[in-house]
Amino acid sequence: MKSMKPQLEAKGHKFPRGLTDVIPVCSPLWNKLSPEEKASYHQKAKDGGGTTFIKEERCDTRGVPLNWKEREEQKKISEKDHLLQKVEDMISYFATQGTLENHYFYLAHFNIAVTTSEGEYPPCEIAIVKFSLLDGIAKCYHDFVEPGQIRLGYAHEAKLHSENTHNIPTFGFKLANSDYVNITNNIKEMLKQPDGGIAPLFVVDEDNAKAIYIVD
Fold first, then answer.
1. How far apart are CA 149 and CA 70, in angstroms?
2. What keywords would UniProt list here (predicted)?
3. Alpha-carbon distance 183 to 186, whole Å?
4. Tag placement on the chain: N or C end, fewer CB within 10 Å?
């Protein structure tokens, strides 16, 4: 998989979580290899002290190993439980300190151009609000984002997604900001705290995958 990663990235694939995201893409390619080609990869991994390309195991219709999918699902559940516990601990702390009503939280929402089978979520709109339970919304940041070149084969799907959801044009939208450095700096400035730290950014559960991809 390590040897395939640079080749796939050169073709436009993105792997924000490293080899974890490489497996779903590599598995179908691996299944198409001949026994001789697979043996060659096994030998290269052995000689290099690495791991075998992909083990022979049961796969789904896309060629993704079922065991890997189960491990990833369990990992996501564990990570979600850990994050929820951190949020509960933070809320409990503010409550015991008597500062919960005055504390400012930051909530983000992202609209995307399309969702690809490679796990990509090119953004087309971002909004962040700063609010407290006592004062309500105190500040808001909003911008339309240029999603960039849509992966080949997804133009029609992106058009349908736009028409059925946010109605933001996927192509040629004059209000879309393509200065990603400027967008990043605006977000950092929004979240910057008096002590120089960065406040945590919250999203609703259904936006979690999109947020991780976009922010990373």
1. 32
2. Cytoplasm, Developmental protein, Differentiation, DNA-binding, Meiosis, Nucleus, RNA-mediated gene silencing
3. 5
4. C
Q: Which residues contact 21 (CB under 8 A, 6 or more apart)?
A: 14, 15, 118, 119
pLDDT in tens, 124-161: 999 999 999 999 999 999 999 999 999 999 999 999 99
3-state secondary structure of 94: helix
Radius of gyration of the chain (CA): 21
The C-alpha atoms of residue 164 and residue 70 are separated, in whole angstroms, by: 32
Domains in the chain, CATH or no CATH each:
4-64 (no CATH), 102-215 (3.30.420.10)
For residue range 30-74, list pLDDT tens digits in order.
666 677 776 666 566 666 555 554 555 677 665 667 777 677 778
